[in-house]
Specification:
Length: 346
């Protein structure tokens, strides 16, 4: 089969590789249709391996060596292993990407994203930038006929956005501030809109701000002193930081009113200093959000994407697998993509 294989920094090769092993107990083999890329893929491509176990065996997945990336994929079940129920062969599905053990304390508490043996397909073992991939059936959610593939491929990152809203504690209909309207930030706006939550968006890119308004933001302002001041006056109790920058995190904390909550979703590339004193005096809750809970967040993501097709607003391009480096990874790293890149495996 054809696949993109990571061999090191800026070394991804599209080549022929053996098909994955047949599905074991509780697993399915997918024929991949589309696979999206995100900022983590770009970071691994340009600066990794950070999460990819190229030199050392991953303690949970057991993988070591060159690896097929891609953790945002949708496809059709080609083959089912033993004990798979409810997802027959031929079913279109999206995959949640994260593997959990189901028996450790976090898993038993329903927080499978914090599993002690967690690993991610496409980051810690072979993923979806290939014609076929074998994954646990429990990680998959069926896609209704009314949800096209170009919407379904957004389900995994949409689930991450919905999980952040769940972590925020904000109820449907309550307003939120979102700092950063990039890949995950734009999906946060769409996720909030699916819950009728007014969003006030801050970003430095005029194009991203326009997209945020098209996705349903109540306001979209430049993240300068004027924009920050206008949002601060609204005293919105929930602020989600999605830019992954130190300045964004500091702004999020500054915008959170006393008794409010700052949700840290973006991943800074370096340690960030924040005003802990203000957080303590103002009783601001500092909450982090990581990945998603597949059993709850992924089905809601599929439902939201079925109700409203947002792919024309958030996907910049869909390219063939052979063009993944030149047309997707390189532009992603060089910040030349105003939206997401999706890879077609058809």
């Amino acid at each position: 089969m054809r696949a993109a294989v990571y061999h090191g920094p800026r070394d991804v090769r599209v080549t022929s590789v053996p098909e994955p092993r047949g599905p074991g107990r509780g697993e399915v083999m997918l024929r991949v249709a589309l696979c999206g890329l995100c900022g983590t893929d770009g970071h691994e491509y340009a600066h990794g391996p950070s999460m990819i176990p190229l030199e050392r065996r991953h303690p949970a997945s057991g993988h070591q060596g060159p690896m097929i990336p891609g953790h945002e994929f949708t496809g059709v079940i080609e083959q089912c292993g033993q004990d798979v129920t409810g997802l027959p062969e031929g079913t279109r599905v999206v995959a949640g990407a994260g593997h959990w053990c189901g028996s450790c304390p976090p898993c038993r508490a329903g927080r499978t994203n914090l599993c002690r043996n967690y690993y991610t397909y496409g980051l810690n073992t072979h993923g979806g930038l290939a014609e076929y991939v074998t994954v646990p059936a429990a990680m998959c959610t069926a896609v209704p006929d009314s949800c096209p593939d170009d919407s379904a491929v957004l389900a995994q990152p949409m689930a991450i956005a919905l999980h952040a809203l769940n972590r925020s504690g904000a109820a449907p209909g309550e307003p939120v501030v979102i700092i950063g309207a990039g890949g995950i930030g734009s999906l946060l706006v769409a996720a909030a809109a699916s819950r009728d939550m007014p969003t006030h968006v801050l970003d430095l890119s005029p194009e991203r701000l326009r997209t945020a308004l098209a996705l349903g933001a109540a306001t979209a302002r430049t993240a300068d002193s004027e924009g920050l001041g206008a949002v601060a006056e609204a005293r919105v109790p929930t602020v989600v930081e999605a830019s992954g920058t130190a300045s964004g995190l500091r702004s999020a904390l500054a915008l959170t009113p006393p008794g409010g909550r700052t949700v840290m979703l973006g991943l800074p590339s370096a340690p960030a200093e924040i005003d802990v004193r203000r957080a303590v005096i103002s009783e601001i809750d500092l909450v982090s959000s990581s990945a998603h809970v597949c059993a709850t967040d992924l089905p809601e993501a599929v439902q939201a994407l079925t109700r409203r097709r947002i792919s024309p607003l958030v996907v910049d391009r869909t390219v063939a697998l052979e063009d993944v480096v030149a047309m997707a990874l390189e532009p992603l790293v060089e910040r030349q993509l105003p939206g997401k890149a999706v890879i077609s495996l058809r």
